């Protein structure tokens, strides 16, 4: 009996000692967790980068940010912790007790018991200055460091959340994600804006072509999605795409991310515009709901007033006009356009911007483009006297073209004739097979993900919404 009592007692002592030990070992917390109140009253460790240091007589205040949220965590320490290495930009690990703050601006603060500077940062050499709101054009010069600024870290959190929302939109709507290849032997858009791939050290002197055929970085996953739509009905892909466009414009990159969807058993453009509009709305509502502080930083300080523009975009159902109606609107305008507005001419950015303005700064679908303007896969509307294709572009304020899509030509004879006309019948014999073996009416679209972010945040230059921009004459890092 005595032995049992001793054993029970020692087990209790052991549990208490373990609990005391655990209480003392600081729990590692993200700043976002700490600010939301997790770990209040507990011993915690925070790891991050110093955003400000204020030494006062009685206390040292240090703000630390670890990229998990816009807000920094305020650290309160006794003045003896002040150290010349503890500067703006330095990396730190700080242990202490998380307490409720009396200051109305922050819910909690960390009473530091230990401060360790992991990596020094000379503030004189560091390109960003404490408390300064640098312009996007300025921080763009430092792609290796710009994640440390509030604006760019907010942007990347929004980007991450928007990408997540796109995936969940498709998952909830029964689409299967397909990893379409980055290396391909086709030029889906037929525009010849391809980056060709070659091995840096040829394998064999006789044939220095690694794949035996010319291979390129993909300009679109569409044709591979069409293959898969023929067995999964609804598919999508979301990945990097490449265009060798020698453009210095604010809406073109050589490498950008595209969201593409393909739907089988689709007979009308409205089936496509519905998915585009739903995806735009759902993703935007998700971002506004899940990243309120990050979005506010943009809508209040970086692009003031843009929140109203986003609300206008979301208010009503998106407009739809035919290409022919769009041409009429442009012809009736008093604005002098640099590019022609004749039927058969492609719509230029200036035209797209005018059309969006004409429709009250709301997103606008333009449908039924001249057949000759669209790639070989677009479905022939077989109309006359105007000859159009069942193609659609979504135009949005500030950006112009956000999405491009079409019904695909599923009729073997028509597709064969078009491929013959452009001399691509042999290259696309496998594509013709899709029309031979269980062909169905189908269609799809692609949305430029960077242009989407520009649109909802009001960012003028596409280089400011991608972590590492690639464009003509620039491939930093
Ligand atoms: O209109 P695009 O060229 O359409 C396609 O590639 C189709 N094959 C997609 C499909 O139907 N699956 O490109 C789609 C979108 C454009 O509307 C635009 O938003 C974006 O991709 N885009 C670019 N974004 C940034 N930089 C560039 N150079 C871009 N080119 C196109």
Largest sheet: 8 strands, mixed
Q: Termini separation (Å)?
A: 72 Å
Strand order of the largest sheet: 7-11-12-17-16-15-14-13
Number of domains: 2
Query: Rg to the nearest angstrom?
Result: 28 Å
Seen as an oligomer or otherwise, the chain set is single chain
Using the 3D structure, state the CATH architecture of the largest domain. 2-Layer Sandwich
Provide the low-confidence segments as ranges. none
Instruction: Indicate the proportion of strand residues.
Output: 15-25%
Number of helices: 13
List each distinct ligand once.
4-amino-1,4-dioxobutan-2-aminium adenosine-5'-monophosphate
Element layout with pairings:
Layout lengths: L1 H23 L2 E3 L1 H5 L7 E13 L4 E6 L7 E5 L13 E10 L7 E12 L16 H4 L10 H23 L3 E2 L5 E2 L11 E2 L17 E3 L4 H11 L1 E9 L12 E10 L4 H22 L1 H11 L3 H10 L3 E4 H10 L16 H10 L5 E7 L17 E9 L3 E9 L3 H10 L7 H8 L5 E7 H9 L20
Parallel strand pairs: 1-2, 4-6, 7-11, 13-14
Antiparallel strand pairs: 2-3, 2-5, 3-4, 5-6, 8-10, 9-10, 11-12, 12-17, 14-15, 15-16, 16-17
The structure holds 4-amino-1,4-dioxobutan-2-aminium adenosine-5'-monophosphate.
Structure description:
33% of the residues lie in helices and 24% in strands. With 477 residues, the protein is α+β, with helices and mostly antiparallel strands. It has 2 domains: 27-126, Beta Barrel (OB fold (Dihydrolipoamide Acetyltransferase, E2P)); 146-464, Bira Bifunctional Protein, Domain 2 (BirA Bifunctional Protein, domain 2, 2-Layer Sandwich). β3 and β4 form a beta hairpin. α4 (150-172) crosses α6. It binds 4-amino-1,4-dioxobutan-2-aminium adenosine-5'-monophosphate. 4-amino-1,4-dioxobutan-2-aminium adenosine-5'-monophosphate is lined by residues 188-189, 220, 222, 243, 245, 252-253, 256, 258, 260, 401-405, 444-448, 450-451.
